[in-house]
Design brief:
Blueprint lengths: L3 H6 L2 H9 L6 H7 L7 H18 L14 H8 L6 H26 L5 H7 L6 H10 L12 H27 L10 E3 L2 E7 L3 H4 L2 E5 L5 E5 L1 H32 L3 H27 L32
Antiparallel strand pairs: 1-2, 2-4, 3-4
Length: about 325
């Protein structure tokens, strides 16, 4: 059934939009876009079983533990090329692996309650868990993609030193704020060119001393790095370079750990996308108060109290 004119007449695109509204993952969007009727009875029965069982879970007040997930296709292509992933890409993979873990736990709990959903577990049983990789990513990468201090002993040490250096710089600058208040345009510490500076009145430039990094639009205020903190600022810059190098090393090490599991990650993403798609269909069925139809291979059609899904419930007239 590929007649686009029929799909257009039936406004099938609006049905797709309605289902897509319930999706959580970017990957499932492709499944909705490819959604089309079938005339193969076994395929139809499988789809109906999936939707019916997902609806049964929703009717219990439960939902599959699928969070918002970004597509990891580009990350997988970079792994295939042997490239290092950035923090956000690693965070996306970490979230996918965590989702797999939560889905298995969810269906194990249902099984413990003697509730079985074979059409759904048929998908779940296709996933591949990577607990060691999942643990490594959780220890190293935050949800927003930033690298955690717990990622390595060296990174934790560098950041601890950075904190100490920041305190020393601020202590020196706060003393200058008090001792040279009359030479300052404002009693505040600010940043220019990633260096700590003070706002100095232009006429006190030579008396104050230090390196000028910027000036105000009027030229009456100069942002000067005092000589007293120049060496501390230099050490701080060195620590920042060391931090960047260690972060790059950590990202590369995590990427290399993922490289042997590209196919497993693809499969996991595909499974989660299908479960998301199935649950979206169930959400839509619930919104319509839909029921599962019985199909016949004898060309028999009997429809009772049928309602058009795109007409408001308070305006529609059911028909047999």
């Amino acid at each position: 059934m590929t007649d686009q004119k029929i799909f257009s007449t039936l406004e099938f695109g609006k049905i797709k939009q309605a289902v897509q509204h319930y999706l959580q993952t970017e990957s499932a969007e492709r499944l909705v876009q490819a959604m089309a009727p079938s005339d193969q009875l076994d395929i139809i029965q499988t789809w109906q079983s999936e939707t019916e069982q997902a609806l049964g879970i929703l009717m219990q007040g439960k939902v599959l533990p699928i969070p918002r997930l970004v597509n990891i296709d580009m990350a997988l292509k970079r792994l295939e090329l042997g490239a290092s992933l950035n923090g956000q890409e690693l965070a996306g993979i970490a979230k996918l692996l965590s989702t797999i873990h939560q889905l298995m736990k969810f269906f194990d709990q249902l099984a413990a309650e003697e509730k079985t959903y074979p059409a759904l577990t048929a998908w779940v049983y296709q996933v591949v868990t990577l607990p060691e990789i999942e643990a490594e990513l959780a220890q190293a990468i935050d949800e927003d993609g930033s690298v955690l201090s717990s990622a390595s002993v060296l990174l934790a040490s560098i950041r601890r030193q950075q904190g100490q250096m920041e305190q020393q710089i601020r202590l020196q600058l706060n003393q200058l704020l008090k001792s040279k208040a009359s030479q300052l345009s404002d009693a505040l510490v600010t940043m220019r060119n990633d260096r700590y500076v003070l706002p100095v009145k232009a006429e006190y430039k030579h008396q104050f001393g230090g390196t000028v990094h910027d000036q105000s639009s009027t030229g009456q205020t100069l942002y000067i790095e005092p000589q007293a903190v120049m060496e501390l600022n230099n050490k701080r810059a060195e620590l920042q370079r060391a931090e960047r190098q260690e972060i790059e090393r950590i990202l590369m090490a995590l990427s290399e750990a993922l490289m042997p599991y590209q196919e497993e990650l693809k499969r996991n993403e595909w499974v989660v996308a299908h479960l998301d798609y199935i649950q979206a269909r169930a959400h839509y069925a619930k919104s319509l108060e839909a029921t599962r139809p019985k199909f016949s291979d004898q060309q028999i059609v009997a429809i009772y109290q049928a309602r058009h899904p795109l007409i408001a419930a308070d305006k529609i007239v059911p028909n047999d």
